[in-house]
Amino acid sequence: MLGRTRHGITDAGLTHFQTAYPGEAITKDDIFYYTYGLLHSEDYRRRFADNLTKELPRIPCVKKPADFWALVQAGRILGDLHVGYETVAPYPVTIKQGDLSLASIDDPKKFFRVEKMAFGKGKDRSVIHYNANITLIDVPLAAYDYVVNGKPAIDWVMERQAIRPDKDSGIVNDANDYANETIGDPRYPFDLLRRVITVSLETMKIVRALPPLEI
């Protein structure tokens, strides 16, 4: 027998928001996406920066129903973008060596093999050295504004899509093994990096279009 799905939003939480916006047809899903949108608000993060380092976030009701629905809509779009990050269109980066679509690649596993990505000279973030064959140039610096757990999302990809020995166990985590054996695509780390650039830019576009926080 299948277990019963339990919603993360309580009935009391639903009533709280319905009371705050009388006449609005609000569902628990709406509250979930409102929360996700609100947590991405730069106004919210600035105003409650000190609290967010010490306690779980508190979710206030914005004053205007229109702003509530704007945050719901933004939360839905952001949720789809972040959950489906592996399916978004890779950002059309410029490759220093030329157009890869025109390159003759005899051994894709060797060509796209990644060991450790690095920024350009002087930590130039507009340049990412993917491997000896591929250098990305003109990477939009605005993409680094999307920060996850204190670090730009691009930095997380560069750190994880690599060959990394575990200090404690000595086990080597090789992103190429995952790309080749699990995904079946040796260019997966390269495309993932480009997809996260797209996600980062789209996220910040949505975030910066959010209404000012009035509570």
Unreliable parts: none
Helices and strands, in N-to-C order?
HHHHHEHEEEEEHEEHH
| Largest sheet, spatial ordering of strands | 1-4-3-2
Cα-to-Cα separation, first versus last residue: 44 Å
Q: Average pLDDT across residues?
A: 92
Q: Give the number of domains.
A: 2
DSSP strand count: 8
Shape: elongated
Structural class: alpha+beta
Helix content: 40-55%
Cα-atom radius of gyration: 21 Å
Question: Which band does the percent of strand residues land in?
Answer: 5-15%
Quaternary:
single chain
User: Which sheet architecture does the biggest sheet show?
Assistant: 4 strands, antiparallel
How many helices? The count is: 9
Explain this structure:
This protein has 215 residues and is an alpha+beta fold. It has helices spanning 11-20, 28-39, 42-47, 49-52, 65-83, 108-111, 153-160, 175-183, 188-207; strands spanning 94-95, 118-120, 124-129, 135-137, 147-148, 151-152, 163-165, 172-174. The strands form 3 sheets. Strands 1-4-3-2 form a 4-stranded antiparallel beta sheet, with no helix packed on it. Strand 5 and strand 6 form a beta hairpin. The protein is elongated and about 65 Å long.
Provide a brief overview of the structure.
This protein has helices at residues 11-20, 28-39, 42-47, 49-52, 65-83, 108-111, 153-160, 175-183, 188-207, and strands at 94-95, 118-120, 124-129, 135-137, 147-148, 151-152, 163-165, 172-174. With 215 residues, it is an alpha+beta fold.
